[in-house]
User: What shape does this take?
Amino acid sequence: MDSAVQAVADRLDDAGYISDVDIATAVYLAEQLERPLLVEGPAGVGKTELAVAWAQATARRLIRLQCYEGIDESRALYEWDYGKQMLFTQILRDKVAALTADTDLAGAIARLQDEGAQFFDRRFLLPRPLLEAITSPQPVVLLVDEIDKADPEFEAFLLELLSAFQVSIPEVGTLSATVRPHVVLTSNRARELSDPLRRRCLHLFIAFPDAAREERIVAEKAPDTDETLRHQVVLAAQHIRGLDLLKAPSIGEVIDWTRALSLLCPTGLVEDAVRTTLGVLLKHQRDVEAVRGRVPEVVRAAHGG
Assistant: This one.
């Protein structure tokens, strides 16, 4: 591994994120090239956690935008502070009422016109995550989480930010980042993302980790559990992911399963404990029933059989 990439991997490791060469290289290149990073992969492989760890590793504040169907710029970019605008309007009305007492009537009207033009001023903006990231005077990490849940129109809306690190507000103009944020977009591939969005980003696919890396992750997150048990739980989880399931267990669910099993069989997997704790690992009853019927096979795999 290149020394610069290794340094990134070490920083992520210090932040509690066990990476591999592909992940560390993608983060390094995103930093050096100042490009957004699109991270794809199945649910539960650590895409969101990568952004969190990257923020911690670089001492940057994390700003998160959670995407969903129907999200628009009023939720993502800005809203107007109507309360302040109404107060400003009342102040203008009071000044209009005082015009008759002003000897310089033309000058007073000019001043009011100038103030009225400021009705849509930056001071009346309520920043949402995107605007907050662009206007932050301090370096931040912007996480656009689960972009595949948003509508294609929202993708198009993001293109200006992803390509030029700026946003346009019709009443205010274009606001450019003085300190460019690190940008991470995550996708579970619920739908195909557009080519224009992909072209503006570096791409990283995170698959489920191999057994060695997953064991390191479990050891990091559940250090008080027995080493032999962790090894066996990971082998069991890797075997289970190869079965026909509605949803493969995430890394977080494997960590939870390890902790649960450590209470029932602290030094090694046994069939009864596996059978009764499958609800910790699997979140669909069909999957629980499918694996429950193959528990002896799972335990043999865990023991290297």
